[in-house]
Design goal:
The complex is a heterodimer of chains A (about 400) and B (about 210).
Chain A: H1 2-7, H2 14-51, H3 67-77, H4 88-104, H5 123-131, H6 133-144, H7 148-179, H8 184-189, H9 206-221, H10 233-236, H11 246-271, E1 284-287, E2 290-293, H12 295-314, H13 322-349, H14 364-394
Chain B: H1 2-25, E1 49-51, H2 61-65, E2 71-77, E3 95-103, E4 122-124, E5 139-141, H3 158-161, H4 177-180
Antiparallel strand pairs in B: 1-4, 2-3, 3-5
The chains are: A mainly alpha (about 400), B alpha+beta (about 210).
């Protein structure tokens, strides 16, 4: 925003410049947010298909590329139905609030060193606070629908989000202790120096655990599958959005996928080095006077990889029961997170380990390489496996 | 300690599952792009019924065999003066089949009608794409007003007519053969030695001992 603000002519009155800069940023971010889910939903349907040995959408457009657009258009033209006895005002307000809650986090997401609407000094705190607004929206939706399933779903989601926020915030705290700042830019800058400096690979066994906890809690906070009991189809019809149709339903969808993206971005900012490239040489290309920065590309790539992992998990794991969900939050994630906060805090204070364990430098690359080699191996193995199966079936 | 073990198992088994789904991500897909590519049905598939009118002797055994009564048959006696006609396996056709309708919307695809048929003229084809917006389109009329029957017994000429060579074509020699020549079904040609001159296309004829 400061960037845009600086470009605007100073002849304009101050308030107008602020309004223009803010409005421009908002328009860009809203467009980003609205177009993102079109890609995610397509990718999700494709991944769902692939993981079940199907091919996913293929009719609308080449390889079904226009399927989501067709779906979105369909939802927009559908009638919005208000159930009898619904609280109409809350009913309309709820999806708006959910979308706003998901969208507000975009304001502080650092897409690159300068590509950020506002660099709040309490950025992380802001993200945590703002992402809880959608809980209010969900409860509103459940209450206003005049439907017991919707209310059940809303209550479940409230319980779930409140529970999982605690371990997530505890883990954030351990990162914040290392950085000493809540600003997302500062957190990213603290991970300067290539892949081995990312927080994921600091204090080797500790921070990876922190990452797993944060990712799990984030998954729960956006009601994704192992934790999607608020909309458990087999128990609650569709949960809080049972009674929603048309555009309001689309807004819930939008919010869900946006939240997925936000959680992934926050996870990559905290643990995967934000907009830093894994190699400093890949950060930017100098082209004469200007340098072509790839920061945003790296951040988006990392975030999309995490979104992909979320989808991957969705098509891998069955849904938890409510008590299991609470067990995971309170008896597994929270104790580990508490231990982590204390351990990381203590280690950061103690002089010999203030900059991490001595072996931290040597952990990141081998681990990453191992991951990719393993995934590649599984790819090849899958091909071989599939060919062998085809041969067996032919025989 | 067992708590730690539970937690470890909880997270590590997720990786096991992810391993499996990742593998399936790259496996050859089983989807058949239906209208573009079709499944090659096995030859004995039981799909739409077909009746070769020229071979039907109107005995009505299929009608009696049908458990859902979806075959409608009306037949009159042929006048004794009418020229003799024969089914492909040599059975004389003594009845004039006026109506032979099969309601495929009733048919239960049990294949029971094909077993009793003495001339193998009713059989199931692998044809399955006959969906229709009108149910009456599933009532198939097989009686053809201008069918060309065999006027010569295709089995009889085998001994008078001659050389063992080319036994498939003997009916071509006698009179009126011009019209009937193409009728006696291609399968008769490739399999000269089979005496019952098994029914035409249905390779899926499960009872060789029938005729």
């Amino acid at each position: 925003m400061d960037l845009v603000f600086g470009v605007l002519p100073s002849a304009l009155p101050y308030w107008l410049r602020v309004a223009l800069a803010g409005g421009l940023c908002a328009v860009v971010l809203i467009t980003l947010m609205a177009l993102g889910p079109i890609a995610y939903v397509y990718v999700e349907t494709k991944i769902a298909g692939f993981m079940q040995d199907r091919i996913g959408p293929k009719r609308v457009g080449p390889h079904g590329l226009l399927q989501t657009i067709a779906d979105a258009l369909k939802l927009m033209f559908k009638e919005a139905i208000y159930p009898a006895g619904a609280d109409r005002m809350l009913f309309i307000l709820a999806p708006c609030l959910v979308v706003v809650g998901a969208f507000l986090s975009f304001v502080v997401l650092p897409f690159s060193s300068r590509l950020q609407a506002v660099d709040l000094n309490v950025g992380l705190f802001y993200v945590v606070a703002v992402s809880s607004i959608s809980t209010v929206g969900l409860i509103m939706a459940g209450w206003a629908s005049n439907n017991k399933y919707a209310l059940f779903g809303a209550m479940r989601s409230a319980a779930q989000i409140v529970s999982y926020e605690i371990p997530a915030v505890m883990v954030l705290l351990s990162v914040v202790t290392l950085v000493g700042s809540l600003s997302l830019q500062d957190i990213v800058r603290a991970q300067h120096g290539g892949l081995s400096h990312w927080f994921l690979f600091r204090y080797f066994p500790l921070m990876p655990v922190a990452f797993v906890i944060f990712f799990t809690a984030g998954l729960a906070e956006c009601n994704r599958t192992p934790f999607d009991i608020p909309e458990a189809e087999s128990e609650l019809v569709a949960g809080f959005h049972t009674e929603y149709s048309g555009f309001f339903f689309a807004m819930f969808f939008l919010a869900e996928y946006t939240e997925m993206f936000v959680v992934s971005v926050v996870a990559s900012v905290l643990f995967l080095g934000g907009w830093w490239a894994p190699l400093p040489q890949l950060q930017s290309i100098p082209l004469g006077d200007v340098t072509l920065g790839f920061g945003w590309l790296w951040l988006v790539a990392k975030a999309w990889f995490l979104v992909f992992v979320m989808m991957w998990l969705r098509w891998t794991l069955p849904r938890l029961r409510v008590d299991q969900l609470m067990y995971v939050a309170w008896k597994v994630l929270l104790p580990i997170a508490l231990v982590l906060v204390v351990a990381v805090g203590g280690l950061a204070l103690w002089r010999p380990t203030a900059d991490g364990f001595p072996w931290d430098r040597w952990v990141g690359w081998p681990l990453t390489a191992l991951l990719f080699v393993y995934l590649a191996y599984m790819m090849v193995a899958a091909q071989r496996w599939s060919r062998r199966r085809a041969r067996e079936m032919a025989a | 300690m067992s708590w730690l073990q539970d937690v470890w198992e909880g997270f590590s088994t997720v990786l096991v599952g992810m391993n499996i789904t990742w593998r399936h991500l790259f496996v050859k897909k089983v989807t058949l792009h239906y209208p573009e590519e079709k499944w090659q049905l096995p030859p004995r598939s039981r799909m739409r019924l077909f009746m070769k009118y020229e071979d039907c002797i109107g005995c009505g055994q299929c009608v009696r065999a049908c458990p859902v009564s979806c075959i409608y048959l009306t037949a009159d006696k042929r006048a004794p003066t009418a020229p003799a006609i024969f089914a492909a396996n040599g059975q004389p056709i003594k009845l004039d089949v006026k109506v032979f309708d099969i309601d495929m919307s009733l048919c239960c695809y049990c294949n029971l009608c094909t077993y009793p048929c003495p001339t193998d003229c009713i059989y199931m084809t692998p044809e399955y794409e006959f969906a229709s917006t009108d149910l009456t389109n599933h009532l198939y009329h097989f009686a053809k007003p201008n069918a060309k029957f065999l006027t010569v017994n295709p089995k009889a000429p085998a001994k008078p007519a001659t050389p063992a060579a080319a036994p498939a074509k003997p009916p071509a020699a006698p009179t009126a053969a011009a019209a009937t020549a193409p009728k006696p079904a291609p399968p008769a040609a490739p399999a000269p030695p089979t005496p019952p001159a098994a029914a035409p296309e249905p390779p899926g004829d499960p009872e060789p001992s029938k005729a």
